[in-house]
Q: What sequence folds into this?
């Protein structure tokens, strides 16, 4: 349950961020093309950016682990309420993004959502199969 909840939280947030990307992909407006991104104004070398990216990735994993530990302590009803609230927030953001899009972009957005839902269902099916296989092995 806890891994599913964490996966759901990330699955809900990441596609929304990805779809907010400007048309044509990221912009490259000179040496500081990342704008307000952290460390964008420090003129970092490629090696420094990679090392910082690795550290930030580790920090994200640590945050996820800490969140998971505390979520596991919540009663099932609170976990379900949190899951429902996250889904409602995600749906609201999706509808707000969709409202900003042109009709042809809305069609593409809808197709991407369908593909994402299919991949998520496939992943959940795999996780269920894996859990069943592990249970039989014990």
A:
């Amino acid at each position: 349950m806890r891994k599913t909840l964490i996966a759901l939280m990330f699955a809900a947030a990441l596609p929304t961020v990805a779809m907010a990307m400007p048309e044509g992909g990221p912009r490259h407006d000179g040496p500081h093309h990342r704008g307000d991104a952290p460390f964008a104004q420090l003129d970092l070398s490629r090696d420094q950016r990679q090392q910082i990216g690795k550290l930030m990735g580790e920090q994200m994993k640590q945050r996820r682990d800490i969140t998971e530990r505390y979520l596991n302590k919540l009663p099932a009803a609170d976990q379900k309420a949190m899951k429902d609230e996250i889904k409602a927030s995600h749906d609201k953001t999706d509808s707000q993004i969709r409202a900003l899009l042109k009709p042809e972009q809305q069609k593409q957005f809808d197709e991407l959502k369908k593909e994402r839902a299919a991949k998520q269902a496939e992943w959940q099916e795999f996780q269920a199969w894996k859990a069943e296989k592990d249970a039989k092995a014990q």
Remarks:
- The radius of gyration is 19 Å.
